[in-house]
């Protein structure tokens, strides 16, 4: 899909009041572009991938608003968001997705997006989100989205930083997800049971859950990437009697 303009007006070149829509589904991109007319933007450019989007910015300057699909082909739109935020710090960025995985909004926020909207939500939600961003506010789900069931279309890779975890919390959480109880984690990491308990509590708080079972449910479909400074624990096996309480 090639870049196209709606409500073309040369004044946008001076004012920066144009919007950029990056979505590899042509009908979605066109629909969002038409939807944005109501916000008084001089131009709306819809493109299918990151390369076209950056080319558009190079030719027309920084957009006032960018709406980026989370999944662009096989890659994640979060990389595009980071580039836009670097090249156009004043641009307001909204991410959208048809994927209801609970990690999507977290990834969008961590990448620097100012808001996130599910494509399945009513048009009024997109309208409210765009209006909020143009006022300088942010727009994210008030409650976490549902976790993805095993075997979902995409596995979401998340770093400790994106989850708000310290490196040690991430390492402990990784072992919790493998089914290890606190005493086993303490022995493996050469920590006191009390310290492990504190790290587990901190990780659960960051995930917004209250139990180890809830954490396992929340992390379904998420591949936790441990920081480079954390020793790998890939060879660790959960004991048959591991407790999830």
Defining traits:
single chain; 245 residues; alpha/beta; Rossmann fold; Arc Repressor Mutant, subunit A; six-stranded mixed sheet; two-stranded antiparallel ribbon; 10 helices; 40% helix; disordered N terminus; disordered C terminus
Characterization of the model:
The structure is a single chain. With 245 residues, the chain is an alpha/beta fold. The protein has 2 domains: 131 residues, Rossmann fold (3-Layer(aba) Sandwich); 70 residues, Winged helix-like DNA-binding domain superfamily/Winged helix DNA-binding domain (Arc Repressor Mutant, subunit A). The termini are far apart. The N terminus and C terminus are likely disordered.
What's the order of the H and E elements? EHEHEHEEEHEHEHEHHHHE
CATH topology of the largest domain: Rossmann fold
End-to-end distance: 52 Å
Assign the CATH architecture of the largest domain.
Answer: 3-Layer(aba) Sandwich
CATH level-four homologous superfamily name of the largest domain: Response regulator
Calculate Rg over CA atoms. Answer: 21 Å
Describe the largest sheet.
6 strands, mixed
Q: Which percent range describes the beta-strand content?
A: 15-25%
Helix content: 25-40%
Tally of domains: 2
